[in-house]
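User: Fold both of these, please.

Assistant: Here is the first one.
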Amino acid sequence: MGGVVKRAFRYRFYPSAEQAGQLNRTFGCVRLVYNRALEARTRAWVVDRQRTTYVQSSAWLTEWKRTQELAFLNEVSSVPLQQTLRHLQAGFAAFWDKRSRYPRFKSKRKSRASAEFTCSAFRWRDGQLTLAKMDAPLNIVWSRPLPEGAEPSTVTVSRDAAGRWFVSLLVEDPTVKPLPPVAAEVGVDAGITSLITLSHPLAGVSDEHGKVANPRYGQADRRKLAKAQRDLARKQDGSANRAKARMKVARIHARIADRRRDHLHKLTTRLVRENQTVVIEDLSVRTMLRNRRLARVISDASWSQFRSMLEYKAQWYGREVIPVDRWYPSSKTCSVCGRINTTLALNVRAWTCPDCGAEHDRDINAAKNILAAGLAER
C-alpha cells in the first residue's frame, strides 16, 4: 500500500441551541435537494431518455435558489448542498456499473441526518472547528487526539436517532503503515452460535477450538427493547410523551449498535495484525435475511460490517483478504481426505467421514476448508 492513508476520526459534540437549529435546517435542505435532483434526473431519463450529470444538477440547484418557493436554501451553506449532488452522482455511477441498486429517495424519519462540509465551508484553527454560517466553534469532546499536525480536508456532521451529535474529520494519518509480514494464515467461517470459527485458535480471542463467542448484544437487550417499544405504541401520535418514548427506543438501539461495533473493531484488528492472509466466505447477507427464522440473529451478528472492517484494515496494514465462493461446500467437505457429502443437515454439528474416519466439528472443518480453498485461488 503506497501513500498516506486518509482516515476519519469521529467525535461527539454538543451544539448550542442556535447551532442545532442551523444544522437541522441544513439537514433538511440537503435532503430536499437530493430528492429534487433524483426526481428530476429520473424524469429526464423516463421521459426523454437523457442521462444527466452532476454539472446539470448543479445548474438546477442555482435555479431553485432563485425561486420564491426554495429561497430558503440560501440560508444554509451551499457546500453541503453541492456535496449531496456529488453523492447522488456517485450513486448513479454505481448503479450504471451494476454495483448497487437504483438511488432511492431520502426519508425524513428513516434516512441518516448528515451534511458534508469541504475545506471552503469550515475554519480549523488552534484545534477548534467552526462551520460556515456559524459564529462560534463546535463544542467537541476530543476523546482521542488527531494525528500530529493533521488538517481536516472534509468534515461530516450528523445526528443519530437517539439525538446524539457527531462530527467526523477526514485527515491524512501518517501513523497507519503496513505491518511487518507474518507467516500466519487463517480461514474464517461465519456462524450464529459462534460469531466466527477460525481454522486455528487465536489467543485471547477464540477458545481452544478456534470459536469466537457471539455476544448477541441485540438478544441481551431484547426485553428492555420490547418494553420500550410497547410503551411507544401506547403513546398518542404527535404528543410529547411519544417523542420521549421514541427517544428511549432509539437510545437502546444505539447502545446495541455501539457495543457491537466496538466488539467487531477489536476482533478484526486482532485478525489483521496477527495474520498475513484472512480467507472468508463471500456471503450474500441480504439474501440470507429473507429467512424469517434467522433474520434477527443474522442481523445481530452483523457479518457485512465484520467483512467491511476486515477489508479496509487489511488494505491499511498490507494484509490480504480472500473471499471464497459462497457455493463452495465447506461444511460438507472432509478437510482430511476431500470427500464431499451429498447432504448435511443444519442441525448436524459434528460428523465422521465414512472414507478416512476423521471426526469433524462442522464449523472448524468449514474454516479449514475455507482457508485451503482461498489459498488455492491465489
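And the second sequence with its predicted structure:
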Amino acid sequence: MNAGAPRVRRSRASTFVLAAAAIIGIVVCVLLARPFLGAITWASALAILFGPFQGWIETKAKHPNLAAMVSVLTIVLLVFVPAALVVERLVEEAASGAASVRTRLADGELQRLLNAHPSIAPIGRWIDQQVDLPSMIASLATWLSNAGATFVKSSVLQIAEVLITFYMLFYFLRDRKAVARLLRDWMPLDSAETERLFQRVFDTVHATIYGTLAVAAVQGSLGGLMFWVLGLPTPLLWGVVMSLLSVVPVLGAFIVWIPAAILLLLDGDWGKALILTVWGAIVVGGIDNLLRPLLVGNQLRLHTIPAFISMIGGLAVFGAPGFILGPLAVTVTMLLVEVWAASGRTSYREDPM
C-alpha cells in the first residue's frame, strides 16, 4: 500500500455494502473460472514443479518471455508427448484385448475351463443361471474396443484444455514471483504463517505428483513387465491399469495380478502362477514400502484415511483435477485450523478471563 495514500473513512453501512459487493464479485469470478478449473489446476501444479527449472533457465536466457517459452516447450516434450504416445498405445491394446476376449468366448474356452475343473463347475453353473456371463463379457469387450475410438474422436475438448493449460503455464512461470507477491499481500496471515502455507502447498503438490505417481508408475511397470515376460495378453494395458489402481489408497496392483495368477493356475500353468504371485507380492507390493517413504516422506502430512478421502473425494467432486485439489484442500484446511487454534491460545493467554 502507498504510505502517502489518504485513508478513506467509511460508515459501517458502506463497508457492509462494499464487502457484499466483493463477495458477489468473487462468486461471479469463481463461476467464470469454473470451466477452466482443470487447466488452472494442472498449470499451477506444473508451475510449482518446474519453478526451479524456470529459475535456472532465466539465469541463462535473460529475457523472461524466452525463458518461459523454453520451459513450456521442455515440459511439452517431457510430459505431454510421452503421455499422448501412451494413450495411443493403450487404445491399440484395448482393441486387441477386446478382440482376444471375444475370440476366446466364441471358441467356448470359458466352458472348457469349467469342465476341466469340476470343483468350480457348480459355481460356474450358478453364475450362468443368474447372469449371461459370456454375453456380458462380450458386451464389455465391445464397449472397451469402441471406447478407445470414441475417446479419439471426442478428444477436441481435451486438446483445447491441454492448449489452455500450457497457455496459462507460460504466464504462471513467467510471472510466478509477481503472483507470489500478490498472494502474500492478499493473505490474511502474517509473513511466517504465509510461508508455512506456501510450503505446505508446495509439499503437497510435490508429494502427490512426484511421490504418488512415481510409486504407481514403478509398480505398474514392474507388473506389466512380468505380464510381458509370462506371455500374458496386453501387458501395457494392464501395466497402466495397475499404475492407476496403485494411485488410489487401499487399492493397488494386486487387484489385477491376483485374478491373473488364479486364471493361470486354473489353466494348469502352475509355474507361471507361482512366479506371478511371488513377483506381485514381494516385488510389486514391496516397492511401495521401499519407495514411498523416500519419495513422499512426511511431505503430505496426512494419515492414510484423510489421504484416501482427499483423493477419492477430490476425484468425485472435481474430476481429474481433484487428484491434486483434494489433498490440497485437506492439507491447507488443516494448516488454517492449526493457525486458528494457535491464535485462539495466544489470545487466551494475552487476555485471560
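The longest helix spans residues 64-106.
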